[in-house]
Structure prediction request, 450 residues.
Amino acid sequence: MSSQENYNLDESGSPKSFLTLSDAVALIVGIVIGAGIFQTPAFVADQAGSDLVVLLLWFAGGLISLVGALCYAELATAYPHVGGVYYYLKRSFGRGVAFLFAWARMTVIQTGSIVLLAFVFGDYATQIWRLGSFSSSIYAAGAIALLTALNILGLQQGKWTQNWLSMAKVLGLLLVVVLGLTVLPNSTSTVPIEPASSGNWGLAMVFVLLSYGGWNEAAYISAEMHNKQRNILRSLLWSIGIITGIYLLINLAYLQGLGLSNMATSEAVAADLMRSIWGEPGALFISLLIAVSTLGAMNATIFTGARTNYALAQDFSLFNFMGRWQKSHSTPIEAFLLQVAIAFALVILGTITRGGFETMVDYTAPVFWLFFLLSGVSLFVLRIREPEISRPFRVPFYPLLPLLFCGFCAYLLYSSLVYTGEGALIGVLVVAAGIPLLFWNRHRQKLRRN
Prediction:
């Protein structure tokens, strides 16, 4: 199996290299800067105990993400493939593990993330215009349907939607930063508060890294990027640099505008900051900003999620209906349609449980960190098993940095199991349901050979 196994639309009706460096950066920034930065800073401040520790924790989150990005850059440049992690796991651990990952991504990880973001969008859109008792769910389903339709129309429409949403999001966040730092300085925010005895910096890092999650989606667009071997690494470095800078500035604005103690006790830290500056119009502004932010993250997550479904269909006949790449639109339309159907089912689940966002966090977290850990381990396996493969980029300080990355993944897997509820069990059971499907697929293939 060649490391150069990628796709060329002109020859085979599969993905073309349409995406530029700026497109990739917009996708990654759009995925990562979602709802987290508007929710998690208060939790981090509550555990940190001082202004300096708050900023150091967010800076550390950027460094940890950078370590992971270096590992992914080696994998993505050596094995540019639309299947991303699915492809790395297949080469490392075989078709069975790869199938379970693709099944988990299709039914839990990616679709759960889409719906999680959709519920956040629905919650904030409801504050602007309420649509009845199930307003949040209606907005969530409508946003999923609209963004999926835009992506089905074609890659150009999908990427331009993402670029504009990411630009609006970053500009809005920078405006919050400027206002927080200049309009309403808080004289007490510069006085550190002694760390409380109950403060837990490890728990704070869980929230920080949740807010940084999503940069790994670069693996799924590697086959569609111009100048892959150079731009994959550059897109990851630029994206994480931009995200880290924005996160540090926005937390500095929260600290300056509200003070650490107010920030730590806030239930909606961004809304409280803007309400302090502009009153209710400020709260309305932040609601609009969060709505735009979640739409950007949703669009990017929808865009990359269908790519894994397409890769799954290439290897398993049970899902071959998703294996057609539409030449005229340069999109896997059937993969998008299945993804949106599963997402609608999860919207119904979130509506029934009345948990929405919380249900989706529980549902996705343990499964996500399990396979994130396996992707880190695959770097070691492929280095040993396929030493002859050309690696345009190699992780510096190997094996120390990859081991560090795997250690963080293992810690977050543990934390997600400890701190989640019933939703986690549902997610695990859904992944386990893929095991009989794997055996059924093998049985079908044997019958066809016979």
